[in-house]
């Protein structure tokens, strides 16, 4: 199949199964509502996508390569892992709250009708690799159905597999995703593995109301300068901006002109202005 026509082929991906994996133990009622921090509320409802590719082992038992057998192993271990990572099995009630209702994570098993090498060596590999995710999902702002975790197991013609996962950024960051994948892998290898309970601090550290409450005591910061001698404490409020910087942190911290580069984390020119407009 020509490289240009590979991704557009309607027969390239065949969905074999779609199911919802619930935690193996019900989430206690005391943990049913997970309040998001002020920072989490400011993050768009996007996913953190991860894909892992595994070539076919040179030696394997025939049953171990069966798609349904692999899916069963992963689903069982995922169910156990979700007991500790229970918010991922819920839904977003609103922008401030995740409802940990054990709805489950979505799990798809698909067959990709080409060898893995055609995807990894594709001239547009980044676009080609997206085929191991549910269509368009990693780049959607919200997933219809509200799932906070979506997994896809893909098997290629050559016998290799790919495991992809899309985890809601509102529930956890990149470090949380790495820990989740490591713990899920450990349970898959050994069902006796005890998954450490991550600490979902939510709004206990930086709540949506904590800044507002702090300003009650530091009320002049919520006002304006009337003149050079007077601050008008009119509760106008503190300005809070959320931005995305499209480069790694290391590029800023290791920049030859680090002092200038680090200014990017401030509103433009603000620290050096004599007064802030507004």
Automatic annotation (TrEMBL):
Keywords: Acyltransferase, Transferase. GO terms for molecular function: acyltransferase activity. The keyword Protease does not apply. Coiled coil: none annotated. Pfam families: Transferase (PF02458). The keyword Zinc does not apply. InterPro entries: CAT-like_dom_sf (IPR023213). Belongs to the plant acyltransferase family. This is Acylsugar acyltransferase 3-like. It comes from Nicotiana tabacum.
